[in-house]
Amino acid sequence: MINKLIAQMLPHLPEKLVWQFSKRYIAGETMEDGIAVARQLNAEGIEVTMDLLGEFISNLQQAEANKNNYLELIDRFTSEKIKGNFSLKPTMFGLLLDQEVCYQHLRAIVQKAKDCNSFVRVDMEDSQCVDPELDIFKRLKKEFSGYVGLVVQAYLRRTFNDIMDLNKLPANGHPLNFRLCKGIYIEPAEIAYKEYQSVRDHYIEDLEFMLRHQIYVGIATHDKYLVEQALELIKRYRVSKDLYEFQMLYGVTPDLRKSIVEQGHRMRVYVPFGKDWFGYSTRRLKENPKMANHIIKALFFRG
Description:
This protein is of the alpha/beta class. It has helices at residues 2-9, 15-22, 31-43, 60-79, 99-115, 127-143, 159-166, 196-212, 224-236, 254-262, 277-287, 292-301; strands at 47-52, 84-88, 120-122, 148-153, 177-181, 216-220, 244-249, 267-273.
């Protein structure tokens, strides 16, 4: 109850106060802020995936601007030799306004990534977006195999079947490349597993399928239990280190992240940045009210 109350109150609090919570998890407002964090993580032996904030736009002019920002970001990473790639949310490019315009924007970004020998991952959003995002990924994969990947969410009841369906796509010389996460959006029980352990169990089921079928997987979790289960599966199937990596959000569970890196596993950190940090923070809290505990600690114990 308290967590939900805080989640409802947060959008009405002063931005400076909300920033006290958000700054631990967001690189900053500008591209320079994001690049600075990327360099710092690279120095620690960690690669990054950059996420420009601003999903659910209201007009296609915003979509064009977001495309241009990603093209510039890819250029910066290439010229400055930063180790990392790029995540993007299709709603930033007009998915819910004009799906074809969205596809063309994403195609231009993935083409740029290919030209720079880089990589773009299409984030998965809430359930209304899943089918169009799968369609866009399939189109991009056909043309840019090896330069584009997808996020899948273990808590959706459909995900295992989606993975099996996607596994039938022509490889074109490159394995499929997924980020597997639990999923954060609030969805009805008819389409999403709600019990905590049930989500974990299906995460492991999805992961085992990927590892067995040599699908490259970003094991995206801060759950120590899932990390341990993943390591067991990697050992059991003798998975080559060039077929998986661990992924975590910027600012979350740094000790667990460090332990994985020290064991010799590849780690990638998801680094969000942008002027829409306030909207991002409040939306994430509404989607996951349990984050309120972290807000209380950030506000009252971290100054």
